[in-house]
Every structure is written in C-alpha cells, then in structure tokens.
Amino acid sequence: MEFSEKALVLRVGRFREIDAWVRLFSPSRGAYTAFAFGGCRSRRRFCGCLDVFNLVQFKVKTGRGYHTLLEGRLLNGHGRLRAEPARLGMAVNCLKFFEAMEVGASGARAAHALLVETLETLAAEPAPPSPFPLYFRARLAGDQGFLPSLAACHGCGRPGSEFSGAVFHVEEGRLLCPACPRPARGTVVRIGRDVVELVSDVCRARPAQWAGFAPSPGAAGEFSRLLDRFVTYHLGLTWEHGTFVRN
pLDDT tens, 43-82? Predict the structure, then answer.
C-alpha cells in the first residue's frame, strides 16, 4: 500500500552507507519510523528533505511490517533555526520534549499543528523569549489533557484571579488558595496570581503570541518551578544532560 502525507522529521540516522532511517510525526499516524533506501545519496528523490525540523510531503510505501520512503518534497525547512545557536537550542529543547511525551494517535493532529507552528514562530520571530520552550511544554501538556486547570481553588472554588499567595500541590495536581488547608504531605509550589494568569494565557494563545508575554523575573521563576515539578511527577520526565529522560 502507498500513501502520501505531510510529516515532520524528528530524527535521522544511517544504518548502511547510503541508507537512512527517519523518525517522522504526521497528523494522522503520529510518530513512526520509515526507511529511505539510498536516501543519503539520492538528490532526485529526497533533495533537502532528510534533515531534522523539516516539514515534508512524503510518498510512503508500507509492507513487510515497515515503512519505506519513496520520495519527498520539502515544504518548509525552517532554515533560520540552524543559522542561530539560540534559536536552534530552543527548537531542540521543544523537539526533545515533544518526542519524550510520546503523543498517541488520538492527539496527533493537535500536537502536529502545535509543533509546526512552534517551529515556524521560532524561525520567524525577531527575538524569541527565553521561556519559549517552557511555554511549549505547558501548551503541549495542556492540549494533551495532562495540565490541570488553575482557574479556581480546588478547595473552595474561589476564582484564581481573586487571590494571591496560592500554592499548587504537585502530587494531587490541585491549586489551593491561602484560606484552604494544605495536605500534610507532598510537594507544594508557591505561585502568585500573575503565574496563574500566565499559565492560562500560554495555554490559550498561539505560539506566535508568546513573544508578547513579559513576566517579571519572580513570576518567570515560579512558572519554571511549577512546570518542572509537574512534568517530573506527572509525566515522569526530567531534563538531564541535554535531553528528557524517564524517571
């Protein structure tokens, strides 16, 4: 069987002198690996296609339990990402988290759209903000149904916009206002009202709008700690030695 679809190139490697394996992510199939036989030398079939971050229209053949790439047409190479180390670092961070999340087929379309727009924004934005990868993690986790709502206190229901000095109980995934009792055990992260609003704004906004967010240094630190604790406990992912590893 043959099919044609758009897919993002996540990783590329060689397994023989002229052959390559390619890790792809498509909106209909999610993540899968395909083989490009002769792909390391073929300028006609895969010209400029087999590089990380590329969005490519691939023609794929399935059979014998694996996928074979027949040809590709480059749609967007996001070339500016490779030209500037800061942009490249942010893009790599986003991509590694994306892979580590292991998004299933049911969430593939939304995840693919988010990653494509994220890479396009990183390539086009004059000065991407340093928390950009954190925003991506929060948005992806929210889109996939992992991030709990911070709109109101989980104890009394009071809207989060009406109080400051809240705490987030990591293990239970609950936001608690100062008036509600905290659990005797577990990890809590103190967060201000501006962090509650920032999480909500990031999860509603498109990546192209993230550059407009300018949290104070204190709020940025609280946001980072909140997300790190949540990702580590609920997703089982920790950033170590330049990649995300499972706990």
Answer: 678 888 999 999 999 999 998 889 999 999 999 999 899 9
Q: How far apart are CA 38 and CA 22, in angstroms?
A: 12
Report the amino acid identity of residue 205: A
Do residues 11 and 108 both lie within one domain? no
98-123: pLDDT as tens digits? 999 999 989 999 999 999 999 999 99
CATH code for the domain of 50: 2.40.50.140
In this prediction, residue 11 carries a pLDDT of 96
Query: Are residues 22 and 69 part of one domain?
Result: yes
Amino acid at 2: E
The total domain count for the chain is 2
Condensed to tens digits (0 to 9), the pLDDT of residues 151-160 reads 999 999 999 8
Whole-number Å distance between alpha carbons of 153 and 30: 35
How many CB atoms within 10 Å of residue 134? Answer: 23
Class of residue 7 by CB neighbours under 10 A (exposed 0-12, middle 13-18, buried 19+): buried
Give residue 11's domain range.
2-76
